[in-house]
Write a structure and sequence with these properties.
With 367 residues, this protein is of the alpha+beta class. The protein has helices spanning 2-8, 26-31, 89-92, 152-163, 171-181, 243-249, 281-294, 321-330, 335-348, 354-357, 361-365; strands spanning 37-50, 53-55, 64-68, 80-83, 104-111, 119-128, 183-184, 187-192, 199-201, 212-216, 238-242, 253-254, 259-260, 268-269, 273-275, 305-306, 317-318. GO terms for molecular function: endonuclease activity; hydrolase activity.
């Protein structure tokens, strides 16, 4: 009645605002396992398959995912396990949509245990992410958020901070990592050798002639870091290669020209430089530039930098920068290189090579 009278008098009534439910963090969801309904916002960090197991590749189905407050989180105690109802599996299941890994999404559901772990079940809404396919090798969600809008030295500094958040491997672990990262897509029993391009059995790693071994693309003598955990074991620049071809490359800088290298079609070398086959020249350039951004001298290792010289010897420099930039432009990232970057991120070091995700950043940092 009061409302009718006020309306007749021409006095408007402002309706009460509709109730809204703000999203909560994963940390809050972990504490609030009380059967209430909430919208949880976080990064997709894998698929739970058991109480303390979350896988980041080879997803068995589309039934579940794990969320965390950081895209690089690997501790299951800091994750909430999300049940994916059948209506959302085609868009948000990780087997169908592996490219969702690292992306930020929001899920509305009931805060209750799943896999005997703090969870979110009976979801009624899933939003965010790209959904609908994708696949590995893409820039994952907000991984590079702190580098956005930056150029030059500021961009290099921001990327250094981002990619330095990594899991470090031992030199022995590198063997198994390379069997995963450089797997031949046409034969899962083999790896592809970087310079020679040969597909060879994973089991033939070693030091005998025609075995494959661990090639340091940034030659380990350029800064004298050896094979100790750190730059000497960073699989972003370690690749499988034929023992004799690895020896032929030695610690040479990279440049055009030279004579043919035995067992390495398309490769050339002279007294001060090595040139790989055309199909991987861009890969080589982006590995060298990754190392220059990752290792800046602040963690006990030398400050690695590209320069425009050859014959760098034991100095922490690698060349030839003008040639490497040209190689990167002429040979952009292909499917193999993108997959490799993703596998390193998913399974081994949990960091990325920014120049595979954003080749344009090469000229921004080194104009």
């Amino acid at each position: 009645m009061v409302g009718v009278v006020l309306a007749l008098l021409g006095i408007g009534i402002t309706p009460a605002p509709a109730a809204t439910t703000a999203s909560i963090t994963v940390a809050t969801a972990l504490q609030r396992q009380d059967g209430s309904v909430a919208t949880v916002e976080g990064y997709v960090v894998g698929q739970p398959t058991a109480t303390t197991t979350v896988v980041r590749s080879n997803f068995p189905n589309d039934y579940a995912l794990a969320l965390a407050d950081s895209a690089s989180q690997t501790n299951t105690a800091s994750m909430v396990y999300v049940q994916i109802p059948s209506a959302f599996r085609a868009q948000y299941g990780l087997q169908t949509n592996p490219g969702l890994l690292g992306q930020k999404i929001a899920v509305t559901g009931t805060l209750t245990a799943y896999f005997s772990h703090p969870g979110l079940k009976d979801g009624t809404a899933f939003t965010g992410g790209s959904g609908g396919g994708g696949g590995g090798g893409s820039d994952p969600g907000d991984y590079y958020a702190n580098a956005e809008g930056k150029t030059g030295a500021a961009l290099k500094s921001a990327l250094h901070t981002i990619i330095s958040n990594q899991t470090k491997l031992s030199y022995d672990q590198v063997w198994n990592a390379l069997k995963d990262t450089d797997q031949d897509p046409a034969n899962t029993n083999n790896v592809i050798l970087l310079y020679s391009g040969r597909s060879q059995s994973k089991s033939t790693n070693g030091g005998d002639p025609n075995d494959w071994n661990r090639e340091h693309v940034w030659a380990k003598s350029h800064g004298d870091f050896g094979t100790a955990t750190g730059p000497g074991t960073d699989v972003h620049h370690l690749r499988p290669e034929d023992v004799s071809v690895n020896a032929a490359r030695g610690n040479l800088d990279f440049d055009n020209g030279g004579t043919t290298v035995s067992e390495c079609p398309g490769c050339a070398a002279d007294g001060d430089s090595f040139s790989p086959r055309a199909a991987v020249r861009g890969d080589v350039a982006r590995m060298i530039l990754y190392m220059a951004v990752r290792y800046e001298g602040g963690d006990g290792w030398p400050n690695l930098e590209p320069n425009n010289s050859v014959n760098n010897g034991s100095a922490p420099y690698h060349g030839k920068l003008t040639v490497l930039k040209a190689w990167s432009a002429a040979d952009p990232p292909d499917t193999f290189e993108k997959r490799r970057n993703q596998v390193i991120y998913d399974n081994w070091q949990h960091n990325r090579n920014p120049f595979i995700d954003h080749p344009d950043w090469v000229n921004s940092i080194w104009p």
